[in-house]
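An instance noted here:
***
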Amino acid sequence: MTDEALLTQVLMPYKDHCKYLRSAVVTETDGRASARCEFEIPESCYIDDTGHLNSVEVNICYNQMMYYLVAKSVKEGLGTGFESWTLEDFWKHQLPDILIARFSSNFRRPVNPRVFSGEMEFRSVTRRAPAGGSPFVHADTAFRYWDADAGRCDGEATLAFVNVP
């Protein structure tokens, strides 16, 4: 079940016309957290209607899904890598310190951006401390989107959480 108050706060940094995530259910399996989400993009925030989900919107949806998954994981103590975090830590680090280090997406069939589903999972989350450098959390993730007409997109992203508590 979606934590509506948490979702509202997670999406607060976004302009009203760029809040695409409508609901999210977070689960944990074998110590790894994942989210299953519903999205709606009534109108693209930057381009005339293309009729399909495009790479910019895929990235925005990924960000919103990932922020909610991390916030919910912190709040509920799910998964690994964020055990020492509080929600206050998350809000402080949400925008400046959660970086997408690598992002790739594959478009298999056009996805209708008006109403579609998505999910993401943490494949691995590790704390790293490079010699002479500041510690950070490294996370490998996978995601996918689909619609009722067999539209399909998937991909992977690597995250770096810097200035970690």
Q: What stands out?
A: The helical segments are 4-10, 55-76, 87-93. The mean pLDDT is 95. The radius of gyration is 16 Å.
